[in-house]
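Quick note —
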Amino acid sequence: MGLGSTAKKLQTVADIAEKLYAKVNEIRERVEAMQGAVQSTEERVESLEGDLAEQRAIVEALAEAEGIDVDAVLDDLDAPDGDEADAGGESGAGDDAGTDGDDDPADAGSDD
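Predicted structure written out below.
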């Protein structure tokens, strides 16, 4: 009776160990997949930041060529809604009107 009880306990321990091993492997695979996703995301973010810097330089060069004070426009965008916001909308009128609305989040994030 003592050996049967010991064998049963050993089998229980072995079953638990197998389950733990399977869970550890599953977690390891998930961590590796997450690391791959993080690395891929980091590469995409770096690429997008480079693209954004290029686009910002182009937009600033175009604005300068048109005689638009980029710093004043950015200050108007940062100002609370009111008379200053109306002035910012007027300065973006014309061919550049489509870029003003699209650049708001990018400009705010790249002021660092």
